[in-house]
Automatic annotation (TrEMBL):
Keywords tagged on the record: Lyase
Keyword flag Methyltransferase: no
InterPro entries, alphabetized: ClpP/crotonase-like_dom_sf, ECH/Chromodomain_protein, Enoyl-CoA_hydra/iso
PANTHER family membership: ENOYL-COA HYDRATASE_ISOMERASE FAMILY PROTEIN (AFU_ORTHOLOGUE AFUA_1G01890) (PTHR43684:SF4), PTHR43684
EC number, as in UniProt: 4.2.1.17
Enzyme class name: lyase
Pfam families: ECH_1 (PF00378)
Molecular function as annotated in GO: enoyl-CoA hydratase activity
Descriptive protein name: Enoyl-CoA hydratase
Family recorded in the similarity comment: Belongs to the enoyl-CoA hydratase/isomerase family.
Amino acid sequence: MTYEHIAFEIHEGVATVTLNRPDKLNAWTRLMEREVRDAMEQSEQDDAVRVIILTGSGRGFCAGADMDLLSGIEDGSEKREPGAVYGTRPYNVAVPADYQTQYSYFPSLSKPVIAAINGPAAGLGMVVSLYCDMRFASRDAIFMTAFAKRGLIAEHGISWMLPRLIGHSAALDLLLSSRKVTAEEALQLGLVNQVHEADSLLPAVQAYAKDLATNVSPRSMAVMKRQVYNAQFQSLNEAVAIGNEEMLKSFSSEDFKEGVAHFVEKRAPNFSGR
């Protein structure tokens, strides 16, 4: 597929999806939405891909919904389907349907999705970043919910996800005020995992992703990711029971055998993901 609003490449086990409308600060369009989904599906289905990076071109990550899209909603020409499930099938039937909707589907991918936030992430751009598994930010990054200043509300599940990342009170602060949050404050809040200088952000994310792709069991990553997201809907007893069951399954996996073998033989691992 030829893309117009994103760039997509795969290198050494890492797929990189780049929002590619730099002149518009990568403002989100319906075409971009479909292209991102297609690239994510390709990455999920490709056994050679073990980690996915989502980033933006130019000086922004994503400035939110394109104003033409918002104008279309206002005049009724843009039809919206709140909570619509896009795609023909769920990625992972072992995770709740909550993670299969229009923007919440990244957690249903079996592979880690890392956001490399290189600049402003506002409104829908911030929502998309929250559904990534981890967020690494440039010192130039700015976070802003924006909804309240547009006469809108906490959309696309951000009212559920944001408090789980930074807490109830801090989430309300960011939502109600729509104020700008710097990368340093985002780090203090727990909104991002790491902060880097602008020119070293993508190399740092790529190095982290390559380490996962090279040295970590794909099977382990997929199971642990599923465990963490499913635990949001489980009791402690359920999480313990599932963990015990998954550990027994791990003992009979090829990746467990390889994990022991490469450690004993003092060599680089060669995990199969099975």
